[in-house]
């Protein structure tokens, strides 16, 4: 199985699958792969780290998926700053 990890927070969550497989299931790093997309990690308090093509162990306890409060506020739908368009811009680009 090769988990998909290209969206917001998916890399932070699937890194644990690699650790669980190695520690509790196979004991091997051969023929193992988990997707990595190198974007959006800036929104997390403990983002994934990659070294020599492999996920490193998380630096903090937990699932490593706790988002930064400022990211949550900015992208909260529908009233976060990322979704709110100033009225003057809305007139230029339609309703």
Uncertain ranges:
none
Query: What's the tally of helices?
Result: 3
Oligomer: single chain
Mean pLDDT, nearest integer? Answer: 84
Helix content: 25-40%
Number of strands: 2
Class from helix and strand fractions: mainly alpha
End-to-end distance? 45 Å
How do you describe this structure in short?
The protein is mainly alpha-helical and 95 residues long. Helix content is 32%, strand content 4%. It is elongated.
Describe this structure in words.
The chain contains 3 helices and 2 strands. The protein has helices spanning 10-25, 69-75, 87-93, and strands spanning 50-51, 54-55. The model has no long low-confidence stretch (mean pLDDT 84).
Overview features:
4% strand; elongated; 32% helix
Give me the secondary-structure topology.
Blueprint: H1 10-25, E1 50-51, E2 54-55, H2 69-75, H3 87-93
Antiparallel strand pairs: 1-2
């Amino acid at each position: 199985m090769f988990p998909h990890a290209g969206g917001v927070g998916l890399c932070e969550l699937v890194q644990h699958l690699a650790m669980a497989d190695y520690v509790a299931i196979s004991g091997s790093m051969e023929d193992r792969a988990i997707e990595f997309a190198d974007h959006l990690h800036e929104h997390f308090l403990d983002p994934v780290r990659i070294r020599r093509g492999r996920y490193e162990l998380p630096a903090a306890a937990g699932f490593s998926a706790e988002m930064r409060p400022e990211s949550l506020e900015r992208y909260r739908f529908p009233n976060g700053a990322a979704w709110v368009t100033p009225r003057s811009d809305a007139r230029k680009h339609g309703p």
